[in-house]
Write a structure and sequence with these properties.
Radius of gyration: 31 Å
Oligomer: single chain
Number of strands: 4
Number of domains: 4
CATH topology of the largest domain: Serine Threonine Protein Phosphatase 5, Tetratricopeptide repeat
Helix content: 40-55%
Largest sheet: 2 strands, antiparallel
Order of helices and strands: HHEEHHHHHHHHHHHHHHHEEHHHHHH
Strand order of the largest sheet: 1-2
CATH class of the largest domain: Mainly Alpha
Number of helices: 23
Length: 390
């Protein structure tokens, strides 16, 4: 029988080098002299056996009185890496709600890792699906943040609250990063449009308050959030697909969570297909939206994003080429600031007046000169040599 010091060193070396059989044989030979809760390489012996998937080692240590649930913060259940080990520990009496460093529970750990089968097992053993870490984040919060769609599905089926915020006021539904996850959350009653969800965006709070005072969401909030998400992430194909499928539900004045019309989103993305599906009258194309503190029209947004095809389509279908935003700037002025000559040509051809000035007295040529856009300056000068060109 080896002495304890030699046994501990041998166990440490076996763990470092992955020698499972020797680890087990050492434990069996020295079990009468070893402390089953002795810490080797910063971990209890049982945690080492779990990491090595040594079921014989776990059996020996548990029989000798090894702790399944403390003292921590390194707990055997949190160190497990496969389903069989998890099942073994839970059946042996491990607590599924044990919290390790930073309040991280096994449910959170495997939600982060995308191990949905582990989540199933923990929920079967009555793990607290809405337990929170030191920052107030839940397993669902982590699953949404990491795009773990299958984990999101398991957690929602287990009763997870999609609106439970962390300490910063951010609920899981605001961490959704793909459409499939968003759909699952929406189907389980997640609140995507409440002002409470947007407190972490101070610049948008005032916009949302004005928007919700004017009108309630005009249709199923989930679809509006989908469209806002696609615009926010510049996912044009997904945006067009949703519009094509749900256009019979989306009214031209429907507004997303930030208060902008869906037509405004389509113009911002340069999606002529979505514009065609959404537009019913010319008035729809000139409806102003509040974004980032400014009221502007779909044509303004298409111009500032240099969406030339969308600019041409909007002008051909009745958009006002000389509409004003909240600073009295025209689409031509914002296009001059963007510096795209093709967009400038489209606007001039559509009737944009280069002589109009904003509230500070500057015209399109003035904005082009401030941005030192040579091609645009030349184009505007050729359009009207009578401009004073301040």
């Amino acid at each position: 029988m080896p002495d304890p010091v030699t046994a501990y060193k041998r166990l440490r070396d076996c763990w470092y080098n992955g020698r499972t059989e020797e680890f087990e044989s050492t434990l069996i030979a020295a079990r009468d002299v070893l402390d089953p809760n002795f810490v080797v390489a910063g971990r209890p012996l049982l945690a080492l056996a779990v990491m090595m998937r040594s079921f014989k080692g776990m059996e020996v240590l548990l029989a000798r009185g090894a702790y399944l649930s403390g003292p921590g913060p390194v707990y055997p259940l949190l160190e497990s890496r496969d389903l069989k080990t998890v099942q073994y520990l839970l059946q042996a009496g491990a607590t599924p709600n044990i919290a390790g460093a930073f309040g991280l529970t096994p449910l959170m750990k495997w939600a982060l890792d995308g191990r949905h089968e582990m989540l199933d097992e923990l929920l079967l053993h009555r793990a607290d699906v809405d337990s929170q870490d030191d920052d107030g984040r839940t397993a669902l919060w982590f699953a949404c943040n990491r795009r773990r769609t299958r984990c999101v599905k398991v957690l929602l089926a287990g009763g997870a609250d999609p609106d439970l915020p962390d300490k910063s006021g951010r609920p899981p539904c605001m961490q959704a990063r793909n459409l499939e996850t968003t759909t699952l959350l929406n189907n389980h009653g997640a609140d995507f449009v409440s002002r409470e969800c947007w407190k972490r965006y101070p610049s948008r709070t005032e916009q949302l308050e004005k928007f919700f005072e004017l009108q309630p969401p005009p249709l199923d909030s989930g679809y509006l959030f989908h469209l806002w998400y696609c615009w926010h992430r510049a996912r044009v194909d997904d945006f067009e697909s949703i519009v094509a499928i749900k256009k019979h539900l989306i009214t031209p004045d429907a507004r997303g969570p930030n208060g902008s019309t869906i037509i405004w989103y389509a113009a911002s993305l340069g999606s002529v297909r979505a514009l065609s599906d959404l537009t019913e009258t010319a008035e729809d194309l000139n409806a102003s939206s509040l974004c980032n503190g400014f009221w502007n029209s779909p044509l303004h947004q298409a111009a500032v994003q240099s969406r030339t095809r969308a600019v041409r389509w909007l002008l051909q279908n009745g958009a006002d080429p000389n509409s004003r935003d909240s600073s009295d700037r025209t689409p031509l002025m914002v296009a001059a600031k963007a510096g795209d000559s093709q967009t400038i040509k489209a606007l001039l051809h559509g009737g944009a007046d280069p002589g109009i000035t904003d509230r500070w007295g500057g015209n399109a040529l003035h904005h082009a000169r401030k941005r030192r856009c040579g091609a645009v300056i030349e184009l505007l000068q050729d359009q009207d040599r009578g401009l004073d060109g301040r």
